[in-house]
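Q: what does this look like with cobalamin bound?
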Amino acid sequence: MSQTHFDALRDAIISLNVANATDIATKALAAGVIPIDLITHGIRAALDIIGEKFSTGDCFLPELMLAGRAADAAVAIIEPAMLASGNTAEKLGKVVIATVKDDLHDIGKNIVALMLRSAGFDVIDLGCDNTKEEIFAAAEENKADIVGLSTLMTTSMGEIPEFVEFLKSEGVRDKYKVLVGGAPLNPQFAVDSGCDGFAADASKCVEMAKELMGIAA
Ligand code: B12
């Protein structure tokens, strides 16, 4: 049953149809589809297909932008349902989250921020294209427990080990847990970069953030 909604949302985004994407997201929620499943199996599935088409030259930047817009519109519909289903009373810890320098991809990072908020974390979202100095300043200012870093581009991955090195040079490496994610990353990259954790999606990010805070699942 849910599969029909996932497929419809995926197809609306692939067809770059913002109105259909929001309409289908609204109807799916009304039919009782679980919000995060709609994001994973509808929105992320669609963007993976568009990304593949882009890399094979079967679609171009305008299509990428329109697909991103349709995905954002669907996430905006799903967001209140996710927050409503969450445990927002108890604060589990403070997370400063950011997409790294030179990277403008934020759809996945926004979903991660949303899931963390809905799980009960306080989240300060710095948006895209943040230097390590900006991220560090925000972590200090907000007394963060966890710094979440996102990147979707191989060309920006190097910002992550650089951030960890920067923490070391400031003598505060152990003050923060560094949790990373984004399509080109993997657990080994996180280990090699000196991070504390990697998560492949928003649900796993919540599990990992709880683990880093010493909270039992
Ligand atoms: C949509 C999109 C865009 C949109 C972004 C809109 C936006 N507001 O984000 C626009 C059109 C702006 C764009 C631009 C570009 N893009 Co683009 N884009 C994509 C696309 C199709 C989808 C990304 C996405 O949103 N996925 C859906 C979300 C839900 O998934 P996600 O981001 O992976 O996030 C999940 C997990 O990774 C994880 N996660 C994410 N962040 C974090 C953080 C933490 C802390 C944790 C724990 C977990 C976590 O949880 C998330 C939720 O489950 C990808 C292809 C792809 N399959 O990823 C290409 C892709 C990333 N883009 C690519 C490219 C090349 C570009 C451009 C350079 C194109 C150009 N010629 O200009 C520019 C770069 C601009 C820049 N400087 O950043 C390449 C990157 C290749 C590479 N070398 O790495 C990709 C892979 C396409 C491809 N196959 O070639 N893009």
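The domain at 2-85 is CATH 1.10.1240.10 (Methyltransferase, Methionine Synthase (B12-binding Domains); Chain A, domain 1). The first strand starts at residue 94 and ends at 99.
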